[in-house]
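Subject: Sanity check before I submit

Could someone independently write out the C-alpha cells for this chain? I want to compare against mine line by line before I put it in a report. The sequence has 471 residues.
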Amino acid sequence: MGPRLSSGIVLAVPPVERAIEAELARIPAGSEQVAAVRELGESLRERAVLDDEAPRRRSERLPAAAGTVRKLCPDAADEPDRLLESVFTGAAALVRRAATNPEDAAELAAIVDWLTETDLPHTPGRPGDRSGPDPSTSYQAKPAPSVSPDQLLACLQAHDRAGTGVSAVSDLRVLSGGFSKEMLAATVEYPAGSREIVIRKVARGRTAETLGGEFAALSFAWEQGVPVPEPLWLDETALGTPAFATGLSSGRCLGDVWGPSEPVRPETALAIAGTLASLHALDPAGLADTPLAPMRAQSEILAAVDERRAVLDTVADAAQPYAALFALVLAWLREHAPGDVARPVLVHGDFGLHNILIDHGAPSAVLDWERAHVGDPAEDLAYVRPSIEAILPWDDFLRAYQAAGGPRPDPRRLAYYTVWHDAWRGISAYRMRTKFLSDPARLSDAMAGLLMSPRFLLRAARAAFGQGAAC
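---
Independent answer below. Compare away.
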C-alpha cells in the first residue's frame, strides 16, 4: 500500500507528491490549470502532513487520554495503538454503555475529543464559512472522453428505435461532477435538427452494479413529473462500461457538497422545498428498482449501518487516522437507529445544491440519482438542511415544504439522518483515501479521501456526540 510508520499508519505525503507531479506533467505548462493544481497541492500536503503526524500527537496526548479510555476499556494498555484498537473493536459496547450511564457518556465524550484532537486537527467546520472556492471541490481535471464520437454515434444509432435518423455527433466533451461516474455531453445531429444529450458512464475500475437502479429511479421520477433530465436509454456494453443517456437540462448548480458557492435567493430555496415535496408525495409502489437497498424498517436501517462498518473494516485498521472515530460514529448510528418509517417515499439520497440545476430562480432538474432508495423523507431533509440554513431560516423552508405536500418531519429522525449522511459520505470518501494511498493516480481520490473525509467525519462526530469535539 505504501510506506508505513512503526505504528502501522500508511504515510500520505509521498502519494500526494507523486500525484501532484503526475498531474502537472499531464497539463500544458502555460495552462491556467497549473496554478489550480499547485493550490490544490498545498491543501493536500497540509492534510497529508497532519495525518502522518497523528502518531506523534497521540503519544503526546496519551497521558491525558489513557485513564479515560481505561475506565471504559479496562484491558487497554498504555500504548496509543492498543488504546485505538480497544476503541475500534469495542466501539459498540462503549456507545451502548454511554447510552444508559451518564458517567460513561462523559468518558466517551472525552474519548471523542481526544480522537478529534489527534486525528482531525485544523479540519474546517461548518459549511458556508468560506470566502472563495473550496479546495476539496474546486479543481476539476480535464481528461479526454473515454469514448470517441464514432463510438457514441454507433451506440446512438443502435438505440434509435424511433427511426429519427441520428446522423452525426459533435462537441463531445467531459462534464464536471461525480467521482464514480464519467459525465459526457455531446451534440447529436438529426435530419430535423440537433439535440444536446448527456452520457452518464461508469468510470473504469468503479462498480457498475447500481447504474440500472439509478436509471430506473430517474425514469420513475420523470414519469411522475419531478424535474429531472429526460431518460433516453440504458446500455450495459456498447460504450465499454455501463452507461445511460439523458437529455441535457438547462440551468446550473449554485453550490457544492458544503453548501452555496455563490449567493442564492431565498425564493430559490423555497422553490427547492416545493420540488422536494413533489418527490416525497409520490407513491413508490410502482418503482421498479433503485440503486440502493430500502431503509424503510429499522432492520434495513441497521443493515445499512452494518454495510458501512464492513467497508470501514475493509479499508482501515485501528491505527489509521480517523478509523477509531468512524467506528464510534457508526456504533452511535446502530445504537440510535429509529423505528420503521410510517410512510416510506422515494428518497433521492444526495439532495444538495451540487445536484440541483437552477434556471431562472427555480429547479430545472435534480441530478445524480445513484443514492436513491425507498426510505424516510427525513433523510433528504437532513441532507439539504446545512445548505438551506446558509440561505434562509430552516423553519421557512419546512413551512414551504409542508405547504407543497411534504410530511412534517420528526426532529429526532432529522437528527439521526444528519449523522447518517455525513457518516455515509465520510466512509465513501475514506475508501477513496485508501485507494489513493495504494495507487495515487487520481487527484479526485485524494480530494475526497484527504480533504472531504475528515470534514464529513468531524460533522458526524459533532452531531452524534455534541459540539465539544475539538478541531
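---
OP: Matches mine. For the report I'm noting this point. The mean pLDDT is 91.
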